[in-house]
Amino acid sequence: MPEAHSHQRLLSLLETLEECRAVLMNQSSPEAGRLLSLAILELRMELHKVTASELKALCELMVPEALPAQANTSLRLPSYLKLIK
Question: Interior CA angle at 1 toward 17 and 12, to 5°?
Fold first, then answer.
């Protein structure tokens, strides 16, 4: 039963965090909203038991290798969103 309770608490926490993120994004604090998005992603990964390596594989599938190197470098991500190989 504790696992079900923990699952429900995480779902409730996610709902609250998503509301907070929406407020931040609408209140001229997009950077804080993006940081909160990372926390939400981390909790969702924990909730659904997604590993960092699975997320990395998904990201690699989403960026086609056929793009020229120059086009790839124009897609600059903030340092906190870069994955470590």
Answer: 10
Say how far apart CA 15 and CA 40 lie, in whole Å.
9
DSSP symbols for the chain: -HHHHHHHHHHHHHHHHHHHHHHHHHTT-HHHHHHHHHHHHHHHHHHTT--HHHHHHHHHHHS-TTS-HHHHHTS---GGGPPP-
Residues 56-79: tens digit of each pLDDT = 888 888 887 655 555 555 556 556
Residue 36 and residue 72: Cα distance in Å, rounded? 26
pTM over 0.70: no
